[in-house]
Amino acid sequence: AQSVTQLDSHVSVSEGTPVLLRCNYSSSYSPSLFWYVQHPNKGLQLLLKYTSAATLVKGINGFEAEFKKSETSFHLTKPSAHMSDAAEYFCVVSFITGFQKLVFGTGTRLLVSP
Amino acid sequence: DGGITQSPKYLFRKEGQNVTLSCEQNLNHDAMYWYRQDPGQGLRLIYYSQIVNDFQKGDIAEGYSVSREKKESFPLTVTSAQKNPTAFYLCASSGLAGVTDTQYFGPGTRLTVL
Prior knowledge:
Chain A is built from no helices and twelve strands. Chain A is an all-beta fold. In chain A, strands 2, 5, 6, 10, 11 and 12 form a six-stranded mixed beta sheet that branches. A four-stranded antiparallel beta sheet of chain A has the order 3-9-8-7, with no helix packed on it. By secondary structure, chain B is mainly beta. Chain B has no helices and eleven strands. Chain B has strands at residues 4-7, 10-13, 19-25, 31-37, 43-51, 54-57, 64-66, 76-78, 87-94, 104-105, 109-113. In chain B, the strands form two sheets. In chain B, strands 2, 4, 5, 6, 9, 10 and 11 form a seven-stranded mixed beta sheet that branches.
C-alpha cells in the first residue's frame, strides 16, 4: 500500500533561517514523489517532483528535496526562509493503478516570523 | 494564459439542493480529476476521467456525479445525497492519462451548506 506521513503538522521558523519539512513514504513500487504548496484559499502549486532520476531534486523558489530510499524519506528544505513561504505544504506519492493516483499527506503548515 | 479555471469561487447550498461546480482547462490535457479538501486532511479523490465520455469513481464518490462531454470541461455535481458537502473542492488535470505526470490544480471552490 502507498502512504505518506508528514511528521510535523506545524513548523515555525524565523525569516532568514533554514526550513525543514519532513516526509516519510511507504510504497510497494519505486515511487514518484511530489511536494506541493498551498496558500490560503488557493489551489495547489507544484514545488518539485522526483521520478527516479537524480535523488536531489531542485524546485521553485529555492526549495529542494532529497530522495533517500534507505530511510524512505523525501524531506523538503530551503536554506533561508522568506515571509512569502508561509503556507501549507503537501507531500504526495504517486502510483499507477490503471490511472495515476495521488496519495496526499495531511500537510505541514509553515509559519514564518519576522 | 494556459491553466485551469474553477467557478464559482464561493458557493452556498441549502439543504436538499443539488449544485454544480465548474472546471475548465485549456491545457489540452487528457486526464482530469476532482478532489475534496477538509481541514487538517490531505486531498481525497472524488472522480477522475482519462478520456472524453469516460470517468471513474475515486475514493469518496458517494453523493457526487460528473460528466466529461468535452475534453476541456469536467463539471462536478454535489447532490443532496452527499451528507456533509461543506468543503474546499479542487479540480486538477494532467497531460497524459495512465502514466506518472504532474497534476496541475485549479484555484478551488469553497462550498458551504447553509
